[in-house]
Predict the structure.
Amino acid sequence: MTSRISRLVVAFVATAGATLGVTVANPSPASAAMTICYNTSQAGSFGGVANQAASIWNNATSNLTLSANCGNNLRIYSITGGGSYAVRTSLGNGRVYIDTQQAAQYSPLRIMSHEIGHILGLPDNYNGNCSLLMSGGSAGTSCTNPYPSTAEANRVTNLFAGTRVSGEDARSTGSQVFPDSWPAVLAPIG
Ligand SMILES: [Zn+2]
């Protein structure tokens, strides 16, 4: 009996020691934040919305800082007609176009945050779920949610941390045009 208890105590101490050793030996690595400079000089009336969307992404991610007018990683344009869309040239770089007509139907902030999401590596996911930012216009005009889900935000953080491993994530960093489907809403027949 005594020897059995002794063995249990030894096992417990060894386990505690191993746990302590892991904690000390592998501290979380420090990661430097990446700055993405966006330019709103051609954003027309959407400059304020761009600043709001930048704050949303800064708060949702742990290693990104979107900063206004310090450079041209991301240029934001106001256009009229044709739909909003994004052109990503590489991860964190590109252009976003916000359609004034579309922004009169859908939440301008949701559109802006969604299009910036493409620049940050996210694909479309048109499943009608308003809790997802990348469901875009499929969630309808009543959906005004401008926030990425935890999964969407974490995916961006991982992309910029360089921890992507899957083929899909590898493609997320490349050049791509996202001609967004934010379907037009017909005026009610009256
Ligand atoms: Zn989209």
Observations:
- Strands lie at 34-42, 64-68, 74-79, 85-90, 93-99, 176-179.
